[in-house]
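sry for the spam today, last one i promise. struct tokens for design, 380 residues
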């Protein structure tokens, strides 16, 4: 099955009257939004689907950038005949506010100073990211999205759409996510942030134009990768296999799993901004889909249809957290379906378990698009 092929990231600059107001009370005079679209918007503008990316993702969800060795981060899920079928649907993905791939973030130029924001960039929230996406959807002339879908931090954005803008969506697909972070999830993010801030090159966020805080960001990414995999997937992939060359007198990465972490840590530094990592992980930790209220009370009266997906081996976002989302939807009277997929990939499963997710998403979107009732089901 052929994919989308060559794609390009587009960009718009939006300057709302009075500025773009953030939850922290700060106003950005204008916001640049990087985004990509796949497929065609129909005449009724009723077939648009927004894909929300996770922490390290960007607008390139599918297709190849010219000269790039790899396609977008969810390429196997988006395209003709795939889960998000671009022969039927108009698919949108944008880089989040606070990111470093074209949307306004801490590496952007502060118009007041002419220098990168750095730590003077305002504290952002998941809801701010979604309000930014709403500006893009408005710019594209779309009154109501057929669906919003995403995993991990993307799933948080999905829940924000569900709770803050239910009139703008017909359905949502939150995957491997949570209503709010647990203390353990906050703790892992804090270790990553401290690793960055302990790097001598971080310089309180003012490293632009000089050496990057590469070691700190690399360690933060290593910690993240450990949480993305499961014990089983690590054993299957690496075991206790050692590298061919060992130096017993040095603390070199002798085990294959150590080499894997070092490789991904150093590669991450080449494509991601350390300050963006700080701001985005803080937004994740501060997120509460219910805003301190009971989620089912907040959802009462909504007509949005919901498909929630979890994975058995995901210990970063365990299934009990996704079940809380389903329980709230059912108590609120929403049409909600739930599926917990058998997988050994851990949290990475939402990027890797393509066949089962495709079956679920295809079936769900077909019903929503054609106006059929989405029967509640609880498959474990």
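last one done:
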């Amino acid at each position: 099955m052929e994919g989308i092929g060559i794609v390009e990231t587009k960009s718009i600059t939006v300057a709302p009257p009075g500025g773009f107001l953030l939850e922290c009370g700060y106003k950005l005079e204008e916001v640049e939004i990087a985004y990509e679209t796949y497929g065609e918007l129909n005449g009724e503008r009723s077939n648009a689907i927004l894909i929300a990316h996770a922490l390290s993702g960007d607008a390139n969800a599918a297709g190849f950038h010219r000269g790039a060795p790899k396609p977008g981060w969810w390429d196997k899920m988006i395209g003709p005949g795939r889960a998000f079928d671009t022969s039927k649907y108009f698919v949108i993905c944008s880089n989040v506010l606070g990111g470093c791939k074209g949307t306004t973030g801490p590496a952007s130029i502060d118009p007041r100073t002419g220098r990168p924001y750095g730590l003077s960039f305002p504290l952002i929230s998941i809801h701010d990211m979604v309000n930014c996406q709403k500006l893009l959807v408005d710019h594209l002339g779309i009154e109501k999205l057929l669906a919003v879908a995403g995993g991990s931090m993307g799933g948080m954005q999905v829940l924000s759409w569900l709770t803050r803008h239910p009139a703008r969506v017909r359905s949502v697909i939150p995957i491997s996510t949570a209503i709010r972070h647990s203390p353990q999830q906050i703790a892992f993010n804090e270790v990553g942030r401290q690793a960055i801030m302990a790097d001598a090159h971080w310089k309180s966020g003012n490293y632009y134009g000089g050496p990057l805080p590469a070691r700190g960001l690399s360690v933060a990414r290593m910690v993240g990768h450990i949480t993305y995999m499961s014990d089983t997937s690590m054993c299957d992939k690496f075991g206790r296999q050692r590298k061919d060359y060992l130096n017993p007198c040095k603390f070199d990465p002798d085990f294959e799993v150590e080499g894997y972490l070092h490789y991904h840590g150093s590669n991450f530094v080449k494509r991601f901004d350390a300050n963006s990592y700080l701001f985005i992980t803080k937004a994740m930790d501060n997120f509460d889909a219910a805003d301190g209220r009971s989620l089912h009370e907040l959802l009462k009266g909504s007509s949005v249809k919901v498909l929630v997906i979890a994975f058995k081996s995901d210990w970063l976002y365990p299934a009990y957290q996704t079940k809380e989302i389903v329980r709230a939807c059912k108590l609120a009277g929403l049409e909600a379906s739930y599926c917990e997929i058998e997988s050994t990939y851990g949290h990475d499963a939402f990027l890797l378990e393509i066949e089962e997710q495709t079956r679920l998403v295809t079936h769900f979107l077909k019903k929503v698009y054609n106006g059929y009732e989405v029967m509640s089901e609880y498959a474990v």
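The first helix runs from residue 126 to 139. ok im logging off now
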